[in-house]
Design goal:
12% strand; 286 residues; two-stranded antiparallel ribbon; alpha+beta; 4-stranded antiparallel β-sheet
Length: 286
């Protein structure tokens, strides 16, 4: 999170400035302005800086000093390590929802990389207000599975009762169509599997403060980053829509307890991670 109190220390060293104006052109808040092409950019309204880092990343001569970005935190991009457009597209084309998850634990370095990828996702006005809760404890994951299955099975018993079924078929067509799948889930659950969480041994919950207007957008941008990083590591990543639907109906308090959300946060996305048993060697054109 940015600290507005320190933004007054933003300055440009005239002796180092090349007067290229890149920082002023790209500043989204117009904190940096350049009067003419031959003048050093000036700092105005520093309290409105959102600490996006565009200026620090653009300055070719290190003339800009920003309290949020000390020199040791400004890193030169290693362009030779950047993937080509073709390799990124190949990753996206080959990505699938691979539910063949084994019991092998997801390595710590993979979880660390996935979280780092999520942290570098863009957020509205660089607010960086989202949080990712990581659940790895087997008993806690089982608790999530049991709560989800019990809820949907109770709901199904009511809505698919012979007396109510015609109304369910008419007004809740999606639920009616999913009844056979729910029955299959029940059998797997009673056999000791965790079908709701896809037998994953890691769950990541993406949340943002209640009342934050861009919570859904920010969380799902972070999810996408995290998803691609997991795929790059060869790890299965699955959007847990079944559990997320249950959480909407559980209510915020129970959801926060189940998923260890920060106080005052709302759930916006759920990801399961696991080491896959199968590897997709081909993709289909769409």
């Amino acid at each position: 999170m940015r600290n507005f109190a320190t933004m007054k220390a933003i300055r440009i060293i005239p002796e180092l400035c090349l007067r290229c104006g890149a920082c002023a052109r790209e500043c989204p808040q117009n904190v940096l302005v350049q009067a003419t092409e031959k003048t050093v950019p000036m700092v105005q309204r520093p309290e409105e800086c959102i600490a996006c880092g565009h200026c620090a990343a653009l300055c070719p001569s290190s003339a800009l000093q920003h309290p949020a970005f000390p020199p040791e935190n400004i890193v030169q991009v290693e362009e030779k390590r950047l993937p080509s457009p073709e390799s990124v597209l190949e990753l996206m084309r080959s990505r699938r929802t691979n539910r063949s998850i084994t019991s092998r634990p997801v390595p710590d370095n993979v979880i660390s990389d996935v979280l780092e990828a999520a942290r570098y996702a863009p957020t509205a006005e660089n607010s960086r207000r989202i949080r990712v809760s990581v659940i790895r404890d087997s008993q806690e994951i089982q608790h999530i599975e049991d709560a989800t299955m019990r809820f949907f099975l109770r709901l199904a018993r009511i809505l698919l009762h012979p007396i109510v079924r015609p109304l369910t078929k008419l007004f809740l067509a999606d639920l009616y169509r999913q009844a056979p799948a729910l029955e299959a889930f029940r059998k797997r659950w009673e056999a000791g599997e965790r079908p709701s969480v896809c037998n994953a041994n890691v769950i990541m919950a993406f949340s943002a403060p209640k009342g934050y207007d861009f919570g859904w957008q920010d969380c799902n941008l972070a999810y996408q980053n995290a998803s691609l990083m997991a795929e790059a590591h060869g790890i299965s990543q699955i959007y847990l829509g079944f559990v997320q639907t249950a959480c909407k109906l559980f209510g915020p308090r129970r959801t926060a307890q189940l998923l260890h959300l920060p106080e005052g946060h709302r759930l916006y996305a759920l990801m399961a991670l696991g080491v896959p048993a199968l590897k997709y060697r081909r993709y289909t054109r769409r």
